Structure formats: structure tokens, C-alpha cells
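Contributing new records

If you add data, match the layout below exactly. Sequence lines come first and carry their own label; structure lines follow with theirs. Keep one chain per record. Anything else will be rejected by the validation script.
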Amino acid sequence: MLPNISAVEAISRKYNVGRGLAPASRKDNIIMLEKLKEIIERVTPGIDVSTVTPETKLMEDLKLDSLSIMLLAMEIEAAFGFQFTEPVQFVTVQDVCDYLATKA
């Protein structure tokens, strides 16, 4: 656990958000997963995020519909300080993590 800084600040510092992203380490992936769980919980409060893993499928396992996916994308943009500029299809939580780890 990182002392006295939020997950967003930790991720922003590690990845230099807005200036390109470095490859993610295992620890970075855990931090990113936890941040994504927070976002998922905000978008769909009824979901038990303790069961969310990198392999969790957004639509099948979490039952996210198209509106929830759009809200998720908007929350991700706000949390990570960028905008999606091209269509992206995420199937799993890991797909989101992989995209964020390579986003320049």
C-alpha cells in the first residue's frame, strides 16, 4: 500500500499520464486493477468488486450494458486524464489495463 497518495496519483506518477506510459510491472497492474474496481463500483454500484479479476468479462460477468460501458469509458478518461480518440472494444478488465498501460 502506498502511503498518503491516492491510486490515481500513484498511477499518474508512475506512468507520467499525459506524457506517455511506461510498461506496467506486476505491482502497477495491481494498482491499476484496484483503480478500475473503484471506477466499476461507481458506474454500477450493485456489483461486488471483490470478485473482479483481470479475467472478468465486462459484459458477460459484470452484466454491463452499452450505457454502463459508455459511463465506464467516461470515468476512465476522467481518472486517467485522456480521451479515447478511436473505437476500442474491451472484453475483459485486463483488456482495459493493457490499453491503459500502452496509451501514449
